[in-house]
Amino acid sequence: MKNYIDSNYHRDLSRSDLANIVYLHPDYAARVFKNEMHISLNNYIIRKRITAAKKLLTETQLPVNTVADKVGYGNYSYFSKLFRRETGLTPQEWRRENPL
What is the pLDDT at residue 99? Predict the structure, then answer.
């Protein structure tokens, strides 16, 4: 599941879809993932997406809403909320503090 997430984080990923890839029940797949990775499935996806967003914000001049779309968040407000929760900064603040 980790490899699939790493390659497809920009897509809509549901726990059920990920569990189907490894032929497990969604609840069991989430438990196994957490036991092996020491992070919940949902939090792993969020961190993967935020890491990719930080890279795009630092290395490109793409508008923030485009960055949000590219990493799998169609809702800009939700993306900004998660970004701030993970980094302590808004996407705009991150870009200002980490220029090209």
Answer: 80
pLDDT at 100 over 80: no
- Are the C-beta atoms of 65 and 83 separated by less than 8 Å? no
Following DSSP, what letter does each residue of 37-87 receive, concatenated? HSS-HHHHHHHHHHHHHHHHHHH----HHHHHHHTT-S-HHHHHHHHHHHH
CB of 32 closer than 8 Å to CB of 24 = yes
Q: For residues 73 and 61, is the Cβ–Cβ distance under 8 A?
A: no
- Token pair of 53 as six digits: 């967003």
50: confidence class by pLDDT, cuts 50, 70, 90: very high
pTM over cut 0.85: yes
Residues 12, 97, 61, 58, CA torsion sign: negative
